[in-house]
């Protein structure tokens, strides 16, 4: 079943059951606590909190999502993308646990001829929150899932929250058993690659307060109503229904990998390292295209930094596979052609998206050229002196003059058998930031005008990549 058909079935199933179809919101969150939308419920947060009256008691959507913290998983696990689409159904004070559970089961296991997805019930495993006897009872007694396939998990997996203040509640997840070729048995509690999570049903019922982590926070009290927020990963369901090994091999991403193999001559399936690169390229190029489509421009901070890092990582992986010239135009056009069916604004906006992407590629290719020379010299010198660690000074120089993200320096040094003094690098970054602050203060008080120097430095190709100093979480 193609991704477009999964989407169509999802929306019509819930529309037929009284839900109003709401189009995906932009990836740029209309929420000061978030840079990018990581889940389908984000546009509906004020309804859950009772701040705004919902347009309808039941809605459904397929929401574009970006999860930057999942970047390290891409290509390594089979199921994480930085961009994905979350299919959701929502109830604002309408149906609750039993309604949501029954709808989910009906859609997943209903026959394909009747509009369902036709999954075999025996392959579905359920998790519920530690103390959620009610959810377990519904799964077992109402739906008929045997107790052996219902597991209880703690806050990390089965209690969902979003923002402070924000709604939260226990959740129940539906996982699909992909079989012994994906590892040991025992259910999602022990093996999340084999028993892949496909759908999360959140019973939004409390308001979350301050805390130190996703597992440690205060609950302020009950929300005005008991609500439902669900999210199913479209790409994950596509992976199951299309019988492929990972989400990058599903229809909308596979074509990007195919284009990358065409441009590099590397064959998918030939070798682990290049397979990971192909998956990273497919994922990151798609994410970049979707972000530019929603109006993000590459930059040094915030969303612009997320986009820059993701795009540069894709280009870098193309080069690892042997590409030497520009590749971005061909790759993004594959994304525009396939994703454009669901998001026609990508097609209308093709020229603008190309212009933004090509400018970033050109800037990065120039940086790689200049930076590689510095790096090679530094590596030779370090080795000649019997060292194994590239100094923090060199990593900082690469960053400061050529905009090398630290992860790029780490990767390139590792290829030549060296590690990098990351602590030293970060110390210099911090010193630079402190200096910039002091300069800004001086400028404010009229003691110095560094503006002109900044312009000269920029004209000479030096860029200030303060954004890369942020850790992933800070950047998100
Ligand atoms: P996982 O445990 O696999 O990381 P999650 O618990 O973080 O997933 P949720 O926040 O519950 O995910 O999101 C709801 C659904 O969205 C998931 O059940 C999954 O199908 C999908 N999903 C979440 N993260 C990703 C991702 N990075 N790529 C693709 N799909 C995702
Ligand atoms: Mg996750
Ligand atoms: Mg999970
Ligand atoms: Mg989950």
From TrEMBL:
One of its GO terms (molecular function) is aminoacyl-tRNA deacylase activity. It comes from the Bacteria. One of its GO terms (cellular component) is cytosol. It is an enzyme of class 6 (ligase). Binds 1 zinc ion per subunit. Keywords: Aminoacyl-tRNA synthetase, ATP-binding, Coiled coil, Cytoplasm, Ligase, Metal-binding, Nucleotide-binding, Protein biosynthesis, RNA-binding, tRNA-binding, Zinc. GO terms for biological process: alanyl-tRNA aminoacylation. It catalyses: tRNA(Ala) + L-alanine + ATP = L-alanyl-tRNA(Ala) + AMP + diphosphate. Residues 1-476 form the Alanyl-transfer RNA synthetases family profile domain. Its EC number is 6.1.1.7. Consists of three domains; the N-terminal catalytic domain, the editing domain and the C-terminal C-Ala domain. The editing domain removes incorrectly charged amino acids, while the C-Ala domain, along with tRNA(Ala), serves as a bridge to cooperatively bring together the editing and aminoacylation centers thus stimulating deacylation of misacylated tRNAs. Catalyzes the attachment of alanine to tRNA(Ala) in a two-step reaction: alanine is first activated by ATP to form Ala-AMP and then transferred to the acceptor end of tRNA(Ala). Also edits incorrectly charged Ser-tRNA(Ala) and Gly-tRNA(Ala) via its editing domain. This is Alanine--tRNA ligase. It comes from Streptomyces kanamyceticus. The lineage of its organism: Bacteria, Bacillati, Actinomycetota, Actinomycetes, Kitasatosporales. The chain holds residues 1 to 476 of 889 of the full protein.
């Amino acid at each position: 079943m193609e991704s477009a058909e999964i989407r169509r079935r999802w929306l019509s199933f819930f529309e037929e059951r009284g839900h109003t179809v709401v189009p995906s919101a932009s990836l740029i969150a209309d929420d000061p606590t978030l840079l990018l939308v990581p889940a389908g419920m984000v546009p509906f947060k004020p309804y859950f909190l009772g701040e705004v009256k919902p347009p309808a008691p039941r809605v459904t959507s397929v929401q574009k999502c970006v999860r930057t913290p999942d970047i390290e998983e891409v290509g390594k696990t089979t199921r994480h993308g930085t961009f994905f689409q979350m299919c959701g159904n929502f109830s604002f004070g309408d149906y609750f646990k039993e309604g949501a559970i029954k709808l989910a089961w009906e859609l997943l296991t209903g026959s394909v001829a009747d509009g369902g997805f036709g999954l075999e019930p025996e392959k579905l495993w359920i998790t519920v929150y530690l103390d959620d006897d009610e959810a377990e009872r519904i799964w077992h007694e109402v739906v008929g899932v045997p107790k052996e396939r219902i597991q209880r998990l703690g806050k990390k997996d089965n209690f969902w929250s979003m923002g402070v203040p924000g709604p939260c509640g226990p959740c129940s997840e539906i996982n699909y058993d992909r079989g012994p070729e994906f590892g040991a048995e025992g259910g999602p509690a022990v093996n999340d690659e084999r028993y892949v999570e496909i759908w999360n049903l959140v019973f939004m019922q409390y308001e979350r307060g301050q805390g130190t982590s996703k597992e440690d926070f205060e609950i302020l009290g009950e929300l005005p109503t008991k609500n439902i927020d669900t999210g199913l990963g479209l790409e994950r369901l596509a992976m199951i229904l299309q019988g492929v090994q990972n989400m990058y091999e599903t229809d909308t991403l596979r074509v990007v990998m195919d284009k990358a193999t065409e441009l590099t001559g590397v064959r998918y399936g030939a070798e682990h390292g290049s397979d990971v690169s192909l998956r990273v390229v497919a994922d990151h190029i798609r994410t970049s295209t979707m972000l530019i489509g929603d109006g993000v421009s590459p930059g040094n901070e915030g969303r612009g930094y997320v986009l820059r890092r993701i795009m540069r990582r894709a280009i870098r992986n193309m080069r690892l596979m042997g590409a030497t010239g520009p590749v971005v135009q061909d790759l993004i056009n594959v994304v525009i052609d396939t994703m454009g069916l669901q998001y026609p604004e990508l097609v209308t906006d093709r020229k603008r998206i190309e212009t933004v992407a090509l400018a970033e590629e050109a800037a990065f290719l120039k940086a790689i050229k200049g930076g590689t020379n510095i790096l090679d010299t530094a590596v030779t010198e370090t080795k000649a002196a019997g060292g194994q660690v590239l100094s923090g000074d060199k990593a900082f120089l690469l960053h400061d003059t050529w905009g090398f993200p630290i992860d790029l320096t780490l990767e390139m040094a590792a290829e030549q058998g060296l590690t990098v003094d990351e602590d030293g690098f970060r110390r210099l970054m911090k010193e630079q930031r402190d200096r910039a602050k002091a300069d800004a203060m001086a400028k404010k008080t009229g003691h110095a005008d560094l503006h002109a120097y900044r312009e000269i430095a920029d004209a000479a190709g030096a860029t200030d990549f303060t954004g890369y100093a942020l850790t992933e979480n800070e950047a998100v």
